[in-house]
Amino acid sequence: MTEKGIIREIKENLVIVIPNMGAACFGCMNQECKDNGGLIKAKNPKNLPLRDGQRVEVRAPGLYLLCQVLAALLPPAFGFMASFSLAPRLFPEAGEGTIAGIGIMTLFATAFLIYRAKKKIPSGKAYTVTKIVF
After folding, report:
1. In Å, what is the CA distance from 31 to each residue of 25, 36, 39, 93, 100?
2. Same-domain status, 13 and 55
3. N or C: more exposed end of the chain, with fewer CB within 10 A?
4. Are 93 and 8 in contact (CB under 8 A)?
5. Is 123 helix (H, G, I), strand (E, B) or coil?
6. Mean pLDDT by 10 residues, the chain (134 residues)
7. Is the pTM above the cut of 0.70?
8. Of 12, 11, 20, nearest in space to 58 by CA
9. Based on the domain organization, do 73 and 95 belong to the same domain?
10. Total structural domains within the chain
11. Strands 55-59 and 2-11, how do they pair?
């Protein structure tokens, strides 16, 4: 994920960027920005000559984003599969509709637990400053 913004502050190797709120922000309905006060914290591993007010491009690595997606999607899917396969053993007289309902309830319960865990333990996004935009 790539974002562009203006540098607000520089603290040692940490750059605080005010992102441009564009169409890409529609995906999370700006929730991530609201949680962080509308700021992106990024590192400057390339040691670019940065100063306040400069326009920069920041990027989160694709592997990091893939891990975030898998951490959000796999537990609910596994919860559904586990409850769907265990429900007939726990409730032998239950029909297919009941078993599917138990699986769907487990799917939503697991997704809610992942959501709550994400709120309590936010992921420290691994943004880095990739270039200066002129």
Report:
1. 9, 9, 12, 44, 32
2. yes
3. C
4. no
5. coil
6. 82 81 56 63 83 85 83 92 92 91 94 87 74 80
7. no
8. 20
9. yes
10. 2
11. antiparallel
